[in-house]
Amino acid sequence: MLPLMVGVIPFGMVYGVSALAAGWSPVQTMAMSLLLFAGAAQLAVVSLVAGGAAYVAVALAVFVMNLRHLLYGMSLARELPGDEPPPRLVQAFTLTDESYAVTIRESRQGRASTAFFWGASLTLYVSWQVASALGIMLGDRIPDPKALGLDLIFPLTFLSLLLAVARNRRDWAVATLSGAIVVGLRRVTDGGTALIAGTIVAACIGALIGEGRRG
Amino acid sequence: MADGVSGGLALILACALLTYASRVAGFSLAGREIPPFFDRFLRMVPVAAFAALSVPDLVSGTAPPARVLAAVVCGVLIIRTSRLWLGLLAGMLAFAALRLAGT
Asked: Among A56, B48, B81, B93, which one has the highest count of C-beta atoms within 10 angstroms of its own C-beta?
């Protein structure tokens, strides 16, 4: 599994600042952190909307990006008993790369429990909200983001996320392919569609060449 | 300023519901075997998505050469220090410096 581990506080602050710079209101920015609670997807929403993508494409892109939580849930459900509070419907809401990764690590040492997972999840959730709020407050004070070239922060942040998850030559091949496809598709279609198509095609090819190898 | 992006909350709700669906489905599908291809596909999505989200905006927009150089600076810092904020700061500063220098 390739869970994404990036510092929650810096990442949350980048999100808060970027969202405001892109024209989102403080309420909207905070609402996304509270309801969606998925850093990379939140930044993708802000970036795609700023690029003029259709909302349907944005929602679809988020869905594809966050499908991996399906794997996390299935994996965790095998490790954790299902009868301890809080109920699974509540636990599921805060499932993320980080809470999954630390819980699985504990389970490998025979120490996983719902209490541990829930504790980790709550900590991350609260940290993310605090970080987002800090970013919002900071972002509110920046006068003219576009002139400062602040829009570069999106591709740079996604680049650092890519560096966090890419592990081997196959990953880099998929990354290169994805980038190339999206750049090409952008000439003929909008940013949102190009993103979704490029991601799916590149991931499929990666799955094909990854036959037999554990990620 | 208080208005923000129009239709933003509706979009946020849609994204939140779609994401929650994946999160819950995983827990509910416990014990089922996931088709190997779909499993591998899902593991590749983050790599593909992050590349798709970063590459296009580095090779287009204002001053692409400066953007790419700034990205290299950012990448090197991230690899060396493992600190997101350092990499971002270095990249943004490099970009500003390159643009001032007329790249």
From this structure: B48
